[in-house]
Amino acid sequence: MRSLRRSAESLHRPDRPDVFVLDGREWDLLDGVFAPPFSASTGVAMELLAAEQHAAAGAGKQGTRGKQGRQGRRRSLLEIGCGTGVIAVTAALTGHDRVVASDISPQAARNTALNAARHGVSDRVRTLCGDLFAPLAELGGDERFDTVYWHSNFVKAPEHYVYGSMHERAYVDAGYAAHRRYLAGAHDHLAPGGRVLLHFSDRGDVLGLRRTARECGRGLRVLRSRRVREGQETVEHMLLEVTAARAALRPAA
């Protein structure tokens, strides 16, 4: 599987840095953590999220004309699979006052905490370690967020695949079991009016994801997408909204 080969190669490349630059900022990169310098996906994810947040902010201002605006509203984010913490830390730097960032990899959770400290937002970014929503028990289990987000390991591995390393979990999901649990459970952690978002790619099984969402009683809506060249391939990255009701997988109006 090419994704697992990329996973192994990225761990041992001689040019793997300790510090990398993305979005005009420097970020620490620990051993064993997914390396954004070797993939366009993190940068694209940031662009898609920023564009969507800008559009949502504009719509919010229009919808509250003549009423109290949303500019002073406190915003919160739960990020699943935080990796180096680029998304979580950037959220804290750009207006989110409460960010919870979780990863199944202890090394990734440490990496996110390190970058939160590097950029002076440790007071706004709480890092947890564990599988999907399980670590939220440390917070009492009843916290709710304006946005729940996962840049998923969208490549589908066989159902009974045995992971060779923690790092492989950043690339592949055996039988889409983690995706099923995310689709089914993410809305349980939303504040009123909040949204569940999922970054996906056509390197994954889009039809399989749609089927899984339908089985969970969820809909999927493409909010933003972008095609980028990665090596010899052109890859489409998508920012999806997971809706509470079933809906077709189609671009937003």
TrEMBL record:
InterPro entries: Methyltransf_25 (IPR041698), N5-glutamine_MTase (IPR050320), SAM-dependent_MTases_sf (IPR029063). GO terms for molecular function: methyltransferase activity. Keywords: Methyltransferase, Transferase. It holds the Pfam family Methyltransf_25. Residues 78-155 form the Methyltransferase domain. GO terms for biological process: methylation. This is Methyltransferase domain-containing protein. It comes from Streptomyces aureoversilis.
